[in-house]
Each structure stands twice: as structure tokens, then as C-alpha cells.
Amino acid sequence: TYAPKLILLDISDINCIRDVAREILNCYGCVDILINNASMKVKGAVQSISLELDKKIMDANYFGPITLTKAILPNMISRRTGQIVLINSIQGKIGIPFRAAYAASKHAAVGFFDCLRAEMEEFDISVSTVNPTFICSYHHQPAPGNWEASTWK
């Protein structure tokens, strides 16, 4: 049995993810189950959301989980065992108004993990996606009209 260890990770900071994964593997030797459950979203009209914020949403919801998964995956493949779970969103299957960046990032994640599932079958690594309906999450609402600061984490 291992004592719990708290390792902080900003999933939208792609540059630090590999280092965190290495720290986890150095500490425990392996990861049996990887649950990708981080997310960031914004509500606003497409023309009101900056490309910079679109990229932040994509980093947190798509590039973050796949970067962490790719960092852990070689260890799972070498052991020929493991389970990878993506907690995604129903918006990864359907798009709704005022959630374009979020829905796009969730669609991309579903596509990636669906492909990964097929590729990992030969290594006995299970890949699952969970797409719950709307959930309540932390929300920061700024002054009206400031879409940039209206994010959920």
C-alpha cells in the first residue's frame, strides 16, 4: 500500500504535464487506472469569444488529457495492462448554441479516445469515455459583456 501523495497539475499547462507524469511514475512505478476528469468551459456567442480563449479551452479539454494519456501510455503498454477513462460531456456528442469552443474540444476528445480504444485492444488496455449530461461546476461570472472572464472550471 502506498501513502497518498498530492501532485498539483494544471491540465491546461501542456508544458508541465510530462514532468508530472514522470514524477507519478517515479513515485509509484506505474498507473493502473488513469481518469481524465478536468474541464474548462465558457458560455458565449462564437463572435464574442476570442481565439485565445478558444485555444485555452482546447488545451484544457483536449490537449491536456491526450498529453497526460500519451505520457502514461508507454508504461501501460509495456505492462500490457491498464485502464484509461475520459470523463467528457454530452456536448462531445451534440453541439448547443453558445458553447462552440467547449463542444468542439469535447468532440475532439471523443474522437481521439475512440481511436485510442481500437489501438489499445491488442495490449489489453481498456479505454472508456463517459459522457454525462449537464453537471453543476464551479463558475465565475464577471460583469455583463465580459465573455473572456466567464469560465467554468
TrEMBL record:
Keyword annotations: NAD, NADP, Oxidoreductase, Signal
Gene3D superfamilies according to UniProt: NAD(P)-binding Rossmann-like Domain (3.40.50.720)
The keyword NADP belongs to this UniProt entry's keyword annotation: yes
Keyword Transmembrane attributed: no
One of the record's GO molecular function terms: oxidoreductase activity, acting on the CH-OH group of donors, NAD or NADP as acceptor
InterPro entries assigned to the protein according to its UniProt record, in alphabetical order: NAD(P)-bd_dom_sf, Sc_DH/Rdtase_CS, SDR_fam, SDR_family_member_7C
BP term (GO), one: intracellular calcium ion homeostasis
Similarity remark: Belongs to the short-chain dehydrogenases/reductases (SDR) family.
Protein name: Dehydrogenase/reductase SDR family member 7C
Biological source species: Sapayoa aenigma
